[in-house]
Each structure stands twice: as structure tokens, then as C-alpha cells.
Amino acid sequence: MLQAAREAAPMPGLDPRVARLKERLLTAPYEVCLARALHFTRSYRETEGMDPALRNARALRRTLEQQRIFIAPDERIAGSKTEKNLAAPLSVERGDFLRTLQMEMDVLHLKRRPFQISDEERRLFWEEILPYWDGRTLRDHKARVWEERGIIETRPSFVQALRAQIDGLNFVRALGRSGLRSMLGANLRARRTLRRTRNLYALRYELARNNPTPATYVFDVQGHLSLGVEKAVAHGMDSIIAEARARMAQPDVDRHARDFLQAVIVSLEAAIAYAGRFAALAEQMAGSAADEAEKTRLLAIASACRQVPRLPPRTFQEALQSVWMTHVVGEIQYGTHEVFADGRVDQYLYPYLRDDLAAGRIDREEAIALVQEYYLKLSANVEPIPEAGMETNAVLGNSQHVVTIGGLTPLGEDATNALTWLMLEAHERMGGAINQLSVRIHRGSPPELLRRTSEVFRSANGISIYNDDAIVPALRADGLSEEDARDYCVVGCIETSGHGDTHGCPGGHEISLPAVLMLTLTRGRRPYRILGQQRGFDSGDPRGFQTFKDLMTALKRQLGHQLGVLIDATEGKDRAYRDVLPAPYVSALMDGCIERARDITDGGARYDFTSIDMRGLGTLVDSLAALRSFVFERNVLSLMDLLRALETDFRGQEVLRQRLIHEPPKFGMGDARADDLALEIVGWIHEEAGQHRNLRGGRFRCCYYSYGNHVLDGFMLGATPDGRRAGSPISNGVSPSNLIDSHAGPTGSMRSVARLPPEKISSGVSLNLRFHPNFIRHPSGIEAFAGMIRTYFDLGGMHLQPNVVSTETLRDAQAHPEAYRDLIVKVSGYSAYFTDLGRSIQEDIIARAEFGR
Amino acid sequence: MSGPTGVVFDVSRACVDDGPGLRTVVFLKGCRLNCPWCQNPEGQSFAPEVAYDRKRCIGCRTCRQVCQRDCPFDHPPGEREPCAVGHLCSSVCPARAKRLVGATYDVGQLVEEVAGPASDASFFQGTGGGVTFSGGEPLAQPEFLFASCDAFAERGIHRAVETAGHWPVSLAPELARRVDLVLFTLTHVDEEKFRQATGATNRLLLQNLTTLLGAPVAVSVRLLVIPGLNDTPADARAIAGWLKEHPAPPKLTLVPFHRLATAKAELYGRPFAYADRPPVGAATLAQVASWFADAGIAAAPEG
Ligand code: SF4
């Protein structure tokens, strides 16, 4: 019946060309394409000893010159990322997933969603690519810096190794059967269990290269930034090249700076030449086109690719072509998990649309179809995530390329224009696309913008809504100028950034707050450390905690230690980036880099930050509230008894567990007793992080989102004092935990979250609330929905990402995935196709409170 | 506690179908009708009672330790004697599987919960919302209802009341003075049909509706469309005929009968009398709307 209901409401008027493109994206097999990896390897092998920026530019150029290109049927915007239709290139030089891929190379085709790879490519991977990079990747450099500084242990001594094995067994036991199954990749139908068990151990050792401690993560990514697409579109790459040349001629440019500027020029020229290849291909294909329409399509592509991104575009189609070509070259330069936001597309593309409409060169329907094609292109990326990570991640659209619309102009006027509405409608009529549409709202936005956005949720999820009135002042406090702050855009999941001028590093520096609490309660012993990690930090004997304040003091000591390790480890990573893996193409487009003649990895961007991402705020606060009430105020039981209950995952103590769930106040229900604790923690972390500067002199900002990793954190964590069982997810983003009673309503969560001061969470938060479609089934419900968000923003809320989907639909989608291929949900920050997600994260989304039944 | 008190069985936030904007709905316990289609079976009796949600029960037997009497939940529905002790079990249940439904409020407490610092009051303004009294029958506790309405009026909060109209006729002008909107649920104007289903007369409710329609208060008349009761052209003609006797006949909002109350009734150990009636779909509503249109009364589904 649910399926019937979905069929009864077909997407209105989806252009057949776009419908075919969408269908192709959703049904295409996943593949691995080794072309980029091979060209990078061969280029890097030839350029040993050269400046790292030049090496990167040369590798990019070689790939853009030699990678096979294609123009797919129905495409009007050209520019392919790999040689294959929907494939993952491997950023071999970065190394993120290289090790795990190495382990899984033989079973890629057995994954839940198989990845195809040819035998020839497999051979190249083992024989040519891997041997060269062994010890040379960014990850290897990072690990070396960490080892030098004692952030992680290198060769463990016999005793250490033995202790680690015991820890390992405990760790495996703590994971429980389901956790273990996920970690081992139960979905792999491979039978070589011995190998897989060995892999688990190898993986655990690898984890130390991401997790300096059991509560912190420092992943290999930088990326995650607002790509200066506007600069390329508005001025053309030729003019940026001229700028770099002029800069090079100035007397203060030393050898290193000259190499960097040279790398900028090489990269941009390579991008222009790449577009030229598409022009040539289109012309050639046009020669043998089957009909006039096809010929026209190809010739339009040819003419666009001759013009852009070298020169400014002449039409809306050329403008989108320029955006996409600039973007896709960025993806190729970065390789994997780049997460490049194209920024305020409705602002910088509006003039082209306006002029085309006025001149009758395009009609609105055609413009919508072009925008939809662009959305689909942004989603067309896949990542062969290790099986263990698949439980918590999306494969399709893994790299989230956000588009921002609406909001204020740099001068403080309302920025809504005809393209804003058109892009919203394009999203709606496509039933969503995985790229996240971020809608900026300020007090002076036309009320219709929020109402219309609310209405779109009837047919499409995937939109996040942002409050300029909270975010602009917060960005001012971070040091952005008034105009730059008003011109902010959204990056990645929910991160706020200057537009094309900020190297914000919002991804990959993360703390699991509930894990920090458990380390506090166990003198650094739980969660179990893994091979290669430092010994736990002892923040004081819990038997000595006389008052709740004692506990809080110890918690802050532990948190301070964890932050210190995180910041130190981050600096190690940043050093590796600066020294071996600059990003000259991205820097070419970034405001400040040419002027300073420095790469983004070396402090070239006008604004520079690092964000620390905190996960599980709700679980931490609920646990503290429970401890305060049960142990310190009401003396229901002693701290030691409670810890024993946690140790056994409440075995035989279900009554206690139920009481811990139901009696103490919880975060996200508008209850000041819990919310005040959240304020204290958020404020303290902000203060503490503010004491530090990153390698490039930038500040540390705080954010609270968790993409899918709250589920992974949960796997690794024993039971917590809020009644959460071992292995189940911790709370996501700043959302309340799944254990709260939905009775307080979405408004309770909004009231709680709106109290968090924006300047202390300036890098962004994700409040993820799920609504039953009934909530907005009537126009009056849509009005109320919009008014509810308006009020939340008036109270000071920064961000909201609603999911409008019922439990029944999600269950039905689990049972009949083929009928729901285009069902999109927000996880925590990012959007994903629901049926593409791992079971664990699906269950987490279903377990979230559902409002408005 | 001071002043009049009332028994409330739920305060539900962020509701969108019970008046304009975002509503906090206060459910008052108790009703003098006994309609078999009642969607809120927990609102029928006046006294607080225990609800038992078996899905939440962890089988710890804590409730059995405090109360060894014969428990109504041990018997199949229909063979249950009401609980002679009451509430002991719910006060000890750690899992909220047994829960006491119905709490006594005074006006101050209710105002605190609906419009105090930890309430949704800020959302009322932003959405044009407010408080809605539902039930049960809110007019079955008139003193508490009226005093609460006055207190909310003082704070400028929009007030709506959902009623079935079965209460003393003297209350109608009082109600009209105190609220901004009356959501009046009608089922049938035919006395015999109504009596057959509910055992009660519908004279009071018809008279009250007439008074309210003539009073200076917004009235939204909702027809609960129930299969076998009022879903034929003849029923539509009869209801439309009665409505047209009024100087300004109201528009009708059609609300479909559904069976969601089945699970709810089970929590209270009662069978849902209309568990076998088919739910009403959009097609039926559209048809009913057209019969009303033919009979000269505008009728449309919610929305
Ligand atoms: S106390 Fe509650 S959870 Fe325990 S047996 Fe009774 S109803 Fe079930």
C-alpha cells in the first residue's frame, strides 16, 4: 500500500532526459577506476626531488592529458571524473583507505554493493601502484610525525604487544557479536576466515593511525572546503593565470613561492586543456551524430568547452559548464573524499540566467533541467569504503558537494533571486538529489522562501536550513569581515565557511564525548585502547569523587588531555600535508593564495581554521544528568555499583537501566537541568580549544555533527550511565539521544539546541529531527512547519535538517529496496540514499523520535 | 493546589491538526457520551487509570511485589473487572510499561506547563498557534476549562476547544465568550441513529451547536465520516438539511474514521468497539463531499 501511495504521486514534470540521467545514476554498477592512480604514480615516480606543489600539478596534468574521456548520452554538461561511468578513483598519494583497500581488494566484488574492477587493474594495483607508495603516502608521513612525537607507539615492546593482545581480546568481547560482525565485514561472503581475522588485527593496528586515543580521531582528510568556483566562472582561468604570472614577477618571490605559483599555472592550464579535449570529442561525435538534436547537443558542448573555464561564460549553460569543469578537475586533483562545496551558486550564476531568459535564449523548464543535471553530477561519486565502515557510511555520493542558496548579500540585503526559487524547484521535482541543498534564511528573507522550502519536504528530503542571523555574527567572532561573513556558504555536512576564501579543515578531527566520560570513570582504561595507541590518561580515581563537581573536574581534565592529543596529532597531519601534499589547483581558486604566494596547506587562504568535531553531546549530557541524580543527589546507588553495572552491560540490572532511561532529565527536551550541563560543556570546550592555534596560525573552531560515525563510536563503547546499552549508537550531532521520549516534541529539541551560543559552535551543528509526513500533509501544516523553524531561528538556532519520512516507509524500504532507490535521508549532516546505507545506520535513523504522527 | 482543578490525561506539543499554527493540546479526562467510535478511549472515564503497554514490559515483576491482587490485565478484554486498588503498580514500574494516565492539575500548573518558561509559548507566536483543549469532553470539566481559558486569555494565547457538544446548554454562551475557536465534531443529526449508536440523545449537542453558530466565536464544524453511520447520500442530505436551517450555514470539514484507537484501547484493557469497521479513504471523503455539495453545503477534507 505504501508503494502504491508513492506511485500515486509521481514527480511532476521531470524532463525525460533528466529522468534517464537519474535512472542511470541510481542503477549504475559501482566500479573502481585506476587511471588516476596510475598516472599519479608514474608522474610522482618521475618527479622525485621536485617541489611538492609542482609534483602535484604535474601529476594532475598527466592525468588530465591521458585519462580517457567520454560524453555520456543525454548529457548537456560535459566533464568526467574517471574513465568509467560511476567509479571511484583512488587517491593513492593520500593513503586514507589504501590499507583497508589492500585488505579488501580480493573481495571488492563480494561487497554488499559490489565494486567492479578488472583483473588487469588489480594486477596494476598490486604490482605497480602499491609498491611505489609504500611508505610514501601522506598517511605514512603523518604516522611518522606521530611516532616521532610519541603520539602513537611504533614498535611495541613484547610486553606492550602482549598487553595490547589482552586489550584486543577485551575489545573484541566488548564489541559483542553484532559489533564484531560489522567490524569483520560479515557482509562479505568470503570464506577465508583466517585471513579475515588477521585483517581484523591489521585493521586494529591501522586504527591507531586514525585514533591517537580511544576517544579521538584524526583522519587523513583535509579538503572539505568552499572551492573558489565563482572566481573561475566570473573571471575565467586565463585571468587567474595572468594574476599568478604577475605575482611571480614580484621581487619578494623566493624559489619555493615561485614553484608554488608555477604549480598553480600548470594546474589551471591543464584544466583548460582538459576542457579542450571535451570540445574536440564533442565535435568529433557531432560529425557522426544520428540526428539533428544530437548534433545540436554535442556542438553546444563543444562550443561551451572551447569558451570555459578559460574565459567567462556567455550563457547559462556555459556558466554551468564552467562550474562543473572547474569542480570536476578539483575532484580529480584531490582524488577521494574531497568534499568541495561550489558555494552560493544561485548568486553567481543568476546574471547568466537572467540575461538568457530576457534574450529568450532559454526557457525556465530548460534551465531547471540543466540545474537538475548539475545536481546529479554532484552526487555521482562513490567510495569503496572498507566493509567495517559501510555499516555507517553511504557509498554513493560519499563526497558531499553542497550547494548553498538564499541568504544575505555581502552588503546585507536579501539575496533571494529567480535562480534561488528555480534551484529549489529543481530539487523538489527531482524528488531530491543526494547533493545537499542548503537554504540560508535571515530575518528579512521573503517568508515565502521558508514556506516553499517546507513544502518541498513533501516530495524531497535532503535540504538543510541555516539561520544567517545566528551564523553571521558567529563568523564575525571567528575573524571574518562583515562582508565575508554575510557571504558565507555551507561545506560538507553542515560546516559554515567563508565563500572561496577559507581553508577551514572542518573534517577529520573528532572526539567521542561519551568515550571521554568513560575514560574519566575508568582512569583511562575504557574504552579499550587498540594496538599502537598511547596508554590511557588517568584523570583521577572515581572512588575519590565525593560530589558531582569532583566528577566534572575530572571530566574536564580528561577532556583537556584528549583535546591536547588531538591538537598535537592534527598539527602532525597538517605538517605532512604542507610538506608532501599541497593542493595547488585548489589554492589557485582560493582567495589569498596567489597574493601570499602560498598554498592553502601553508596558510595561503585569507581565512584559516581547524574545526574540532564533538560527537554524542546528548549521550554525554544524559549520562552526566543520570550520574548526578542517581549517585550524587539521590544516593540510589554508589558510583562503583553503577560502574559495575555498566561493565556487564546491565546484566541482571534491567530495572536499573529502565530507571536510568526514564527518571533523570535528558538533553533535547527543553529541560534546563540537562541543557545547562550541555551549555557548560560546550562553553568549556570552546574556551579550551580557543587557547590553541593550528600549524598555519588559524584558530580552532568547534562543531557538533557526526555524519555516520556516532554509530561506529557506539559499536566501540560499552554501556553508558544514561541507560544506553553497549554497542548501540551514541547520539548524533546535537540531536537528542534515541532514548528520549518524543513527548517533548520537536520544539523541545529546538528549545534545547537554540540555547547553545552560536559563537561557541561557529563551525556548525546538526540538529536532525524526523517528522511523519502527516505533519505537512495540509497547507496549514506547511505554514506551521515554516513558522516552527522561524521561531527556532528567532530563539537562536543555527541549523535544522528535517527528515520527513515515516517509520513504515523506512521499514518498507528495507524490505523492498528496489522500490525506494531514490529515497533520501539526512544521516547526521550528510544526505544519503537510504537503501545505500548500512543496516546499522538505517536502524539508527528508524530509532530516532518521529514527530507529528 | 488552589482554585478549580481538572483531570488531564495528556499534554501534547507541536500538534498541527487541532487549530491554526503549532498547538499544545491539553486532553481533559472524562466524557458523558460513550461513542463507540471514540478515538481517545483513555479520555472516556473521569478517573485516572492505569495503561499497560506490553511492548515496554521487561517482566521484572516489580508491580507484582507491591500489589498481589487479581490484576485486570491478566484477563482477556471483556472479562475484566475494574481494578479495585489502582495506581500502585504504575508508581513502581521502572520501564513506564504501567503508567497512570490522568493527573490532577490546578490552573497555575497547567499554565506553567503550556505557557511557562519551559513551554512552547514562543512557538505560538511564530506560527499563529496556541492551546487546544481536547478530551474526553473538555466541557465535562467546565469550571477548570473556563478558569484555564481565562488564564490563557490574560497571556494573549489563542484558545481552541474540541467538543462533541453533549453538555448543559447554559455553558454554550460561556464557552463562546472564552475561546477563539470551537472545533465541533458532529456525527449525525438524526436522533434515532445517534441514540442507536451511543445510547444517548443528540438534542443537547444540536442545540449547543446552534447556539455556538449564532454566537460571536469562530466555529469549525467537523463531520466524522463513519461507515455505516453517516456515509450515504441520505445521511448527507439529512445533515445538510439541518445545517441549512441556520442563518449562515457553516462549511463542513470531513474527518475520516480510522482504527488507530484499537491499539490504544488495548492499553486500557478495553476492546475498541468499531475495530471491524473499515477505515475511510480519500475516495469516500470526496464522494461524501460531493453529496453535500449537491445538498448545498460546502464540505471538504481537512487541509
Ligand atoms: S513493573 Fe512494569 S516492567 Fe515490571 S513487570 Fe510490572 S509492568 Fe512489567
Structure description:
The complex is a heterodimer of chains A (853) and B (303). With 853 residues, chain A is of the alpha/beta class. Chain A is built from 34 helices and 21 strands. Residues 1-11 and 184-192 of chain A have low confidence and may be disordered. In chain A, the strands form six sheets. In chain A, strands 4, 12, 13, 14, 15 and 16 form a six-stranded mixed sheet that branches. Helices cover 51% and strands 9% of the residues of chain A. In chain B, helix 6 links the parallel strand 7 (158-163) and strand 8. The two termini of chain B are 40 Å apart. In chain B, the strands form two sheets. A nine-stranded mixed sheet of chain B has the order 5-1-2-6-7-8-9-10-11. In chain B, strands 3-4 form a two-stranded antiparallel ribbon. With 303 residues, chain B is of the alpha/beta class. Chain B is built from eleven helices and eleven strands. The mean pLDDT of chain B is 93. The longest helix of chain B has 13 residues, at 142-154. The A-B interface holds A 654-656, 658-659, 662, 670-672, 743-748, 751, 774-775, 777-781, 783-785, 787-788, 790-791, 794-795, 851-852 and B 12-17, 20-22, 58, 60, 62, 94-96, 117-120, 122-123, 125-129, 302-303. The structure holds iron/sulfur cluster (SF4). Iron/sulfur cluster binds at residues 57-63, 93, 95, 97-98 of chain B. Iron/sulfur cluster (SF4) is lined by residues 57-63, 93, 95, 97-98 of chain B.
